[in-house]
Q: What sequence folds into this?
């Protein structure tokens, strides 16, 4: 692999709901034709806003911590992989424990599968399939210097707070400069259908940032955060 460190970035505000990421992900032969990235409606029946959701690859993955069979492994690059088939007992602990609602037990094969950041591609220096085909840049794979240069009006963060639980992730999300941590309201997460609440959390964080700026100066146009 190249010595250049590349990261995965999600920019929720850029998602247009085209599903190109899901279609590309489903082409991976290890997924058996099923996408490991999902595009959710943030407020079904109210808004057409969508949000892409991939595995966030936690630095201390809860899914691996609760696995009684030690079937979920993290490699030297911080990628949390799908469960090892010989070890996975499809108990569902990982599904229940993941704060992002990512792991899915595939009943037909009795195994947990999820996004592994296209390890077969990224280990060879290629981009993940989803980031390769995303037309709006909502999913981006590259260096921190590249993302900072291309999107100067926002910054990348990888710290989350779910109630009292704080999580650091391998995947970053783009937010206004005055937001340092993504805070997810637990009732909203439970009632809103899991991953969609993450985009709601982003909207709340972005809104808080705008309120702070308006207190001292005229608010910047919304386009500056895109």
A:
């Amino acid at each position: 692999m190249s010595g250049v460190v590349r990261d995965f970035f999600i920019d929720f505000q850029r998602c247009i709901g085209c599903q190109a990421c899901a279609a590309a992900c489903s082409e991976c032969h290890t997924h058996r034709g099923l996408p490991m990235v999902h595009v959710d409606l943030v407020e079904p029946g109210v808004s057409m806003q969508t949000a892409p959701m991939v595995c966030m690859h936690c630095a201390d993955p809860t899914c691996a911590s609760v696995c009684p069979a030690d079937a979920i492994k993290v490699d030297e690059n911080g990628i949390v992989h799908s469960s090892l088939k010989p070890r996975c007992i499809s108990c569902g602990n990982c599904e229940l424990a993941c704060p992002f609602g990512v792991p899915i037990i595939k009943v037909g094969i009795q195994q947990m599968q999820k996004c592994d950041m296209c390890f077969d591609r990224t280990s060879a220096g290629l981009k993940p399939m989803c980031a390769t085909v995303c037309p709006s840049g909502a999913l981006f794979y590259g260096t921190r210097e590249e993302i900072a240069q291309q999107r100067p009006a926002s910054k990348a963060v990888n710290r989350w707070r779910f109630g009292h639980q704080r999580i650091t992730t391998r995947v970053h999300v783009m937010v206004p400069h005055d937001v340092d941590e993504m805070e997810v309201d637990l009732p909203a997460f439970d009632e809103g259908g899991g991953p969609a609440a993450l985009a709601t959390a982003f909207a709340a964080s972005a809104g808080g940032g705008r309120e702070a700026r308006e207190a001292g100066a005229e608010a910047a146009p919304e386009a500056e955060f895109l």
In short: DSSP finds eight helices and nine strands in the chain.
